[in-house]
């Protein structure tokens, strides 16, 4: 990974990544740690959580990791309180989890409602008192380019990511008077080991190739590229940016 500290300095900052053990969330957590921040992560899977915690600890900054079901409101509240106590506060909240409900049944819709939308709302609510005490306060949501266009598959996922992007604008307006910035990142198709597109590459090569053909840059995205956007949006360089959803997709949206 490119040395994040060469461009960004987050020494003394406290960053919480909800959904930070794999893929994009892990890359975001590692990028902030590399740039000097104290970082807390949560996830459900104990093995991946422990591995991510160990990787974060290599940077020598304070690290906190805890198991948390982000579909459970009480678990979120407990995690936020524990993370804030461990780090000494919260400067940046990153809401990254997804229910990945790509089916058409109620379970798919409820998974995305509870994780993609309500987890971000609940975590923001619980973190707000800590953010109000921070001179760097910022909230980042992980949305998706699926929120920005209609799609034949995964309407639940797309609809809840669209709701999250809209919530970003309302939340930004609501909190602007407190100088708390709120933005979202909308990744395109990002590939990493064990992730959705890695599985599609193995199980459905025709779909994998068809999606790749729609990306003008000619390749799938990498988690660290989303992490770099997160660093920018949380940094003072983006100090007058709020209420925005930034597509990071190699031009994928340009092809509809």
What features would you describe in this structure?
- By secondary structure, the chain is α/β, with parallel strands linked by helices.
- It has one domain (8-192, 224-246): Rossmann fold (3-Layer(aba) Sandwich).
- It is built from eight helices and seven strands; from the N terminus they run βαβαβαβαβαβαααβ.
- The protein has helices spanning 23-34, 46-57, 73-87, 106-132, 155-175, 196-203, 205-213, 223-234; strands at residues 14-18, 38-43, 63-67, 92-95, 138-142, 181-187, 245-248.
- α1 (23-34) crosses α8 and α3 (73-87) runs parallel beside α4 (106-132).
Return residue spans where pLDDT drops below 50 for at least 5 consecutive residues: none
Largest sheet: 7 strands, parallel
Put simply, the count of helices is: 8
What structural category characterises the helix and strand content?
Answer: alpha/beta
Q: Give the averaged pLDDT, no decimals.
A: 94
Using DSSP, what is the number of strands?
7
Shape summary: globular
Oligomerization category of the chains in this entry:
single chain
Helix content: 40-55%
Named CATH topology: Rossmann fold
Helices and strands, in order, run as: EHEHEHEHEHEHHHE
Please tell me the CATH architecture by its name.
3-Layer(aba) Sandwich
Q: What value does the Rg take, in angstroms?
A: 17 Å
**Please, what is the CATH homologous superfamily?**
NAD(P)-binding Rossmann-like Domain
List the keywords.
7-stranded parallel beta sheet, 45% helix, globular, Rossmann fold, single chain, alpha/beta, 256 residues
């Amino acid at each position: 990974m490119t040395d994040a500290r060469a461009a960004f300095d987050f020494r003394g900052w406290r960053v919480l990544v909800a959904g930070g053990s794999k893929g994009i969330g892990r890359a975001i957590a590692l990028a902030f740690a590399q740039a000097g921040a104290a970082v807390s992560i949560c996830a459900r899977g104990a093995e991946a959580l422990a591995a991510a915690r160990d990787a974060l600890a290599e940077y020598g900054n304070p690290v906190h990791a805890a198991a948390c079901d982000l579909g459970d409101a009480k678990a979120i509240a407990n995690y936020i309180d524990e993370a804030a106590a461990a780090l000494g506060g919260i400067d940046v909240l990153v809401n990254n989890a997804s229910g990945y409900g790509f089916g058409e049944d109620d379970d798919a819709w409820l998974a995305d409602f509870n994780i993609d939308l309500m987890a971000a709302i609940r975590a923001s609510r619980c973190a707000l008192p800590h953010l109000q005490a921070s001179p760097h306060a910022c909230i980042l949501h992980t949305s998706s380019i699926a929120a920005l266009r209609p799609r034949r598959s995964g309407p639940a996922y797309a609809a809840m990511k669209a709701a999250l992007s809209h919530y970003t604008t309302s939340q930004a307006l609501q909190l602007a008077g407190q100088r708390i910035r709120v933005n979202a990142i909308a990744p395109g198709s990002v590939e990493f080991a064990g992730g959705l597109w890695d599985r599609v590459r193995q199980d459905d090569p025709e779909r994998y190739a068809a999606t790749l053909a729609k990306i003008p840059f000619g390749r799938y995205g990498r988690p660290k590229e989303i992490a770099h956007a997160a660093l920018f949006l949380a940094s003072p360089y983006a100090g007058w940016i709020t209420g925005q959803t930034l597509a990071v997709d190699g031009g994928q949206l340009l092809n509809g």
